[in-house]
Amino acid sequence: MFFCGLSRNNVYSNADYKDADGVILVYDITNRKSFDCMTLCLEELHRHAKKRQAIILIGNKSDSENDREVLRKEARGFAEKNDLIFWEISALEGTNFDNALKDLLTNLTNGEDCTPLICGCRLGERG
């Protein structure tokens, strides 16, 4: 798993993701900073990666609606503006993860061998 953006140890180079066919950008719907860094991740990908990549934006923790800091409408708008696939999932409950991956795989080019990449923001340990 590779992380880009606001991480404590952002040591990955463009060589880590330049050959990825599919990219998964993950943010935490209960953490505004994790969503805000998606712009930086996307800029980094566009600067160094393949021209044609299937990119999906995933908002995790859809099971934590009461703690939501990122509105679904805002995230969907960001995804549409940047031509990204968009899903909200709950890793805890296993909700929508399979559907999100199916959409990503459907958008990959011609069923070739694929190199996946997962990007997100590692903002520190939760206490």
TrEMBL record:
Gene3D superfamilies assigned to the protein according to its UniProt record, in alphabetical order: P-loop containing nucleotide triphosphate hydrolases (3.40.50.300)
Spans traversing the lipid bilayer: none
GO molecular function annotation: GTP binding; GTPase activity
Superkingdom: Eukaryota
One Pfam short name: Ras
Name by which UniProt lists this protein: Ras-related protein raba4e
Biological source species: Quercus suber
